[in-house]
Design brief:
There is one protein chain. This protein has two domains: 249 residues, ANL, N-terminal domain (Rossmann fold), CATH 3.40.50.12780; 103 residues, GMP Synthetase, Chain A, domain 3 (2-Layer Sandwich). It is 31% helix and 23% strand. It is built from 13 helices and 21 strands. Strands 4-3-5-6-7-8-9-14-13 form a nine-stranded mixed sheet. Strands 10-11-12-15 form a four-stranded antiparallel sheet. β1 and β2 form a beta hairpin. Bound molecules: zinc ion (ZN). The site of zinc ion has 6 residues, from loops.
Amino acid sequence: MKRKVKSWIYEPEYESMPREKLEELKLERLKRIVKYCYERVPLYREKFKEAKLTPDDIKTLEDLSRIPFTTKDDLRKNWPYGMLATGMESLATIHCSSGTTGMPTSALYTKNDIFNAWAKVMARVYAMMGLKKGDIMQIAYGYGLFTGGLGFHYGALEIGVIALPISAGETERQLRLAKELKTTAIACTPTYALYLGEYAKEMGIDATKDLKWKCGSFGAEPWSEEVRAKIEELLDLEAFDVYGLSEIIGPGVAHECDQHNGDHFFEDHFLTEVIDSETGEPVSEGEKGELVYTTLTREAMPLLRFRSGDVVPWWTFEECECGRTLMRAGRVIGRSDDMLKVRGVKFWPSTVEHALLSVKGASQHFRIVIERPKTLDVMTVEVEPVKELYDEVKGDLSKLEDLKKEIGEKIRSVVGISAVVKLVPVGTITRFMGKAKRVEDRRKVVPF
Ligand SMILES: [Zn+2]
């Protein structure tokens, strides 16, 4: 990675607000939104009644912990308009998630939600990557009910960056247009970024000479430092993490600045707490925990203490070198729903990826298969060797026994359980255009 971008601050009055003032603003907005939810959303009126609370009981930021959590299940039960806090005439856009369990949840927006919240936080995202008027953002996130594409689109309009709404897929066209239109940045899932890099090589496109990408914003799935290094090398750009969830707004809940020391959370819009997933109690600064959000400015679908299930390894209020005072947290390790439990050990697929990529010769293309032939779980990790190595042994995988052994040892030490490692020919593992699906759980009873 040769290019180095310089962040700037789009809304310094909020992003660099002295912490004390920011806490005051959060409290003022919290009191307002609590009252708003109580008056307009039946679910909240019920929750408050059960907890023997009224909006007047929320006098300090500490009082927030008295409010019951909102869960994904609450949203599913209120599909499609149960959480709507305005009349239908104020609604501007409807997004919805398919939901891994099959039950959809809605994400509802007024015009203000889009232009005064979403577009603004996404404009901050662009500034964090140093992008300005004249830059061209290739938006390779899906446009549609998924919030990725449109989130980046609104941010581009707000800040004046030129949007190329190419959406996901059509890889050859992506690369051809990148080259011919000279797009200067790209946004997509990290999985797709890796695929673009490999595809470019096959097409004979040299990322350094032929592409003008200075930076890229990657997210919508957990990814590791190893993947960042690979993307930066393949695409010759500076890779940033973008984080968000459709229930809160979509992309733009948090993003990295050029210091790459955690994601900045836009607390003036989304009050963020970090809790212990099991006890529900707040964890201390610096500790690992689950992110919980209270939307402070949303109109159509405000949420109080929404449990995201997303776990961060650490968090801090310490001011960043970039001048932002907003809370920072390490990249999301995984969503608690995606956590695997094999032979009693809990881990995320991203941990396996982390282990694999620290072994020279192993590629990022892998798949985890979990079975229970008798009483014991068996985890098989199918992995492709890197192409150079594969070509070197002329496709004869039996010559790569040492690599196989090394991968097995690494998984055992990093993940904490042993796995059957199976090397597979290059090109065997499915390449994904959006979020990767890396796990096949064939156990009949999943022990959760
Ligand atoms: Zn920063």
